[in-house]
């Protein structure tokens, strides 16, 4: 009886269609943040090392930079620190830090002990600026291009592999900025 | 330590599920009695291991163990305990573990329920359940292990999606999954019958209570999900034809068809191969639904984070599982002969129409669900299928279904005819039409064409369902639980149709901008805005507005719609205020601050919407009543029927 084979035949067609569907599936993992492709939030915050000075996005225009959100209370940031120092030494791109929900005294002591990878650090004790950047939890790192557009966002401590795989290919081949 | 214990338990459960499947399916086939006898211990062992794994994950959540990746990604130390526990099934891996845990619960219940059935048959049922469990355990261990550690651990977790921070999360997935997974029992009974190559009326009697129980849970789960979406998401609706809603609705339609087809198989020994097919398809659709939701093929409000490999694995698993069942069906079904014929006007015919219409409805939903995938696969561009497709196509099969129902429940088996109830049916139809038109044109105004029709049908189903019980009461004949359950479920359906029509036709909705002290009118109510104040919660801050609601000058209530900003996830959520007055749902959602003291509001008055959910619960209640019928108590296999009946009586 042929008709009893109809269900299994239809099902086979369905499986083929679904298999095709998987490969065409919209890749959600490529869009981890709605901010990607959007201008970075503009801010002007007091500098961590010198409260009299301001760190502002206006001054950062025209250069590539890495915007790294961290805090001394953040365990994963401690893990990330050596890799950030290594990135800073290559001079491929300057690091701008956002010290998030932290105490100034502790943060300065921490950087003196471990080394400072950042060119400038904005101080955000209330955590308001981080909200504008849509930060979930430290550390988070944003790659911003000279037009002030967020090109990439990375969640969690940067590893050497992530740096080579996710960041370097997005940066222009020649170092855009020499270390200052 | 505890996550490793959980991981270990999960792997042991996997091995035991494999043994359960092997012993249950191969034991009876190869006539190895010791294998067959080992099935129940394997079931018990597997359940203990699955429960241990579940307990370990719950404990990791309670202890805020952020060295476990799944915990760190879905919980946070600021999260209240309640949501830390409910958060266990807030994302992919944990909800999969819940799925497996509930499957374990059903399997244990089935093991108890089949103790008195022929041993080989019971072993095959449990064997098929073992194979299902094996597939899901493999899937979890290989692609979605919830116990993976983070090295180094995070200082704190990312937190639970604020949309999920709601009591609904605690109840909706477990209930829905209980229904989903419960269909696997009917599937296993069908699988056992196919493996055995034999199916009789007894088989249908054994299968019915399991199907009805799963269906009742599924009904509750879907209704609760719709309630949750309605008041948490503040979208002001109850059904959106979202791909994931459809994924739960399609098995429901199939299970409804199966319940009715099983009735025919039990009473008359007909529709055997059809019933088997429905039992296989019902569970298959819940597997396909799981695949659609979790593989990232479709985009929906429910979408889980897709990760490569998961979709392929699930597709392979469901291909093997359903493919094997359908191939077995093609081989065995031709031998399952029907025992008798029937007249065109017999109840069998009506139940056949019921089945055809329900399966057609399911097919139209499935087509709408698949269309975007097909169009995408053939590069025809992005296609979005929504209510403009689903509403009319669904109605085309539902209207005849509803119109035939009152005849179906009164038609006699085999010979046909309405048994002298034809006039009574006409009288109830006239009364229903009167009620329908009175409500559609009298109570409300501006009714369209469909609303009196819908209301008449709903009222007619309720009235026609009452004929038989009232007749039995007058003649002082006991009403069997199965009949009572059916009546209750049909009354629920009638109420559902009635209230659905009323909501669709008479909802009043508008967006307004108000300054403090200003008033707006909507659906017969007046809304006065009384200003906004700040709001502070455990992990959010926001604004709360005060709105005084009056009707005809009399105070009805004061409503406090909120807007919350969750800090950790940086997400703004509208927490609309909902008030129920005479079954109507009044919803006020706070929109944006428009500056100079003005705020935007969405006002909505939906008449009778509450009854949609009540009706769904009544339907589920009908199912639960029906499955307590003493007919489903399985007596000792020996001929001692009287003793069995006595034992059944005692239990009551």
The share of residues in extended strands of chain B comes to: 5-15%
* N→C terminal distance of chain B: 47 Å
Total discrete domains of chain B: 4
| Overall outline of chain B | globular
* Quaternary structure annotation: heterodimer
Strand order of the largest sheet of chain A: 5-4-3-6-7
Could you please describe the fold and organization of this structure?
The complex is a heterodimer of chains A (180) and B (652). Chain A has 180 residues and is an alpha/beta fold. Chain A has a single domain, classed as Glutaredoxin, CATH 3.40.30. The C terminus of chain A is likely disordered. In chain B, helix 3 packs antiparallel against helix 6, helix 10 packs antiparallel against helix 11 and helix 10 packs antiparallel against helix 13. In chain B, a hairpin with a 4-residue loop joins strand 6 and strand 7. The C terminus of chain B is likely disordered. Chain B has four domains: 165 residues, no CATH class; 198 residues, no CATH class; 103 residues, no CATH class; 99 residues. In chain B, the strands form two sheets. In chain B, strands 2, 3, 4, 5, 6 and 7 form a six-stranded antiparallel β-sheet that branches. In chain B, strands 1-10-9-8 form a four-stranded antiparallel β-sheet. The chains are: A alpha/beta (180), B alpha+beta (652). Chains A and B meet through helix 1 and helix 3 of A and helix 11, helix 12 and helix 13 of B.
């Amino acid at each position: 009886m042929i008709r009893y084979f109809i269900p299994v035949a239809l099902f086979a067609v369905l499986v083929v269609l679904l298999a095709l569907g998987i490969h065409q599936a919209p890749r959600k993992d490529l869009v981890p943040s709605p901010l990607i492709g959007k201008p970075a939030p503009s801010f002007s915050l007091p500098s961590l090392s010198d409260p009299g000075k301001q760190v502002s996005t206006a001054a950062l225009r025209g250069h590539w930079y890495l915007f790294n959100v961290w805090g001394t209370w953040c365990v994963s940031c401690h893990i990330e620190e050596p890799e950030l120092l290594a990135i800073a030494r290559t001079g491929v791109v300057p690091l701008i830090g956002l010290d998030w929900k932290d105490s100034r005294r502790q943060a300065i002591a921490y950087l003196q002990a471990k080394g400072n990878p950042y060119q400038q650090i904005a101080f955000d004790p209330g955590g308001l600026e981080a909200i504008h950047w849509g930060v979930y939890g430290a550390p988070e790192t944003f790659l911003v291009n000279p037009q002030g557009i967020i090109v990439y966002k990375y969640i969690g401590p940067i590893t050497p592999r992530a740096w080579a795989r996710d960041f370097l290919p997005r940066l222009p081949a020649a170092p855009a900025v020499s270390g200052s | 330590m505890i996550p490793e214990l959980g991981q270990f338990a999960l792997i042991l459960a996997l091995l035991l599920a494999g043994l359960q499947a092997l012993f249950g399916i191969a034991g009876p086939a190869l006539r190895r009695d010791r294998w067959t006898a080992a099935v129940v211990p394997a079931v018990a062992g597997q359940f203990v291991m699955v429960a241990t794994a579940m307990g370990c994950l719950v404990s990791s959540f309670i202890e805020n163990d952020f060295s476990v990746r799944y915990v760190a990604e879905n919980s946070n130390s600021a999260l209240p305990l309640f949501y830390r526990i409910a958060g266990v099934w807030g994302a992919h891996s944990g909800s999969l573990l819940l799925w497996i845990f509930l499957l374990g619960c059903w399997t244990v219940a089935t093991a108890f329920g089949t103790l008195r059935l022929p041993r080989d048959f019971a072993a095959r049922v449990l064997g098929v359940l073992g194979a299902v469990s094996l597939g899901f355990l493999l899937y979890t261990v290989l692609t979605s292990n919830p116990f993976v550690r983070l090295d180094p651990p995070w200082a704190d977790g990312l937190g639970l999606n604020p949309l999920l921070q709601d009591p609904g999360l605690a109840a909706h997935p477990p209930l829905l999954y209980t229904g989903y997974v419960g269909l696997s029992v009917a599937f296993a009974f069908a699988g056992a019958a196919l493996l055995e190559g034999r199916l009789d009326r007894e088989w249908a009697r054994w299968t019915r209570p399991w199907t009805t129980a799963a269906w009742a849970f599924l009904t509750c789960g879907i209704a609760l999900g719709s309630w949750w979406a309605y008041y948490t998401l503040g979208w002001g609706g109850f059904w959106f034809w979202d791909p994931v809603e459809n994924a739960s609705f399609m098995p429901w339609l199939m299970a409804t068809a199966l319940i009715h087809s099983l009735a025919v198989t039990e009473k008359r020994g007909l529709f055997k191969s059809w019933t088997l097919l429905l039992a296989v398809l019902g569970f298959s659709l819940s597997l396909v639904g799981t695949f659609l939701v979790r593989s990232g093929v479709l985009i929906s409000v429910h979408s889980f984070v897709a990760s490569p490999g998961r979709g392929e694995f699930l597709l392979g698993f469901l291909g093997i599982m359903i493919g094997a069942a359908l191939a077995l069906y093609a081989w065995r079904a031709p031998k399952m002969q029907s025992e008798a014929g029937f007249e065109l006007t017999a109840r069998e015919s009506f139940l056949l129409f019921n089945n055809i219409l329900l399966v057609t409805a399911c097919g139209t939903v499935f087509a709408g669900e698949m269309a975007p995938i097909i169009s995408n696969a053939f590069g025809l561009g992005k296609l979005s299928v929504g209510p403009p497709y689903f509403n009319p196509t669904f109605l085309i099969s539902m209207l005849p279904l509803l119109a035939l129902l009152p005849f179906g429940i009164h038609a006699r088996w085999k010979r046909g005819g309405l048994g002298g109830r034809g006039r009574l049916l006409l009288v109830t139809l006239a009364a229903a039409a009167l009620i329908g038109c009175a409500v559609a044109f009298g109570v409300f105004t501006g009714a369209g064409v469909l609303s009196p029709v819908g209301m008449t049908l709903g009222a007619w189903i309720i009235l026609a369902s009452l004929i038989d019980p009232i007749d039995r009461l007058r003649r002082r004949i006991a009403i069997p639980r199965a009949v009572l359950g059916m009546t209750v479920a049909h009354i629920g359906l009638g109420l559902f149709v009635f209230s659905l029509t009323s909501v669709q036709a008479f909802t009043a909705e508008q967006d307004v901008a108000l300054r403090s002290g200003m008033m707006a009118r909507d659906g017969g109510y007046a809304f006065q805005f009384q200003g906004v104040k700040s709001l502070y919660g455990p992990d959010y801050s926001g604004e709360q507005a005060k709105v005084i609601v009056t009707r005809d000058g009399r105070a009805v209530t004061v409503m406090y719609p909120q807007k919350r900003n969750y800090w950790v996830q940086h997400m703004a959520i509208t927490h609309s205020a909902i008030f129920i007055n005479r079954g109507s749902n009044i919803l006020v959602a706070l929109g944006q601050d428009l500056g100079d003291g003005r705020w935007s509001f969405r006002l909505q008055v939906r008449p009778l919407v509450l009854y949609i959910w009540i009706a769904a619960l009544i339907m589920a209640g009908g199912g639960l009543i029906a499955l307590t019928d003493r007919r489903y108590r399985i007596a000792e296999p020996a001929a001692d029927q009287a003793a069995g009946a006595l034992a059944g009586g005692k239990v009551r």
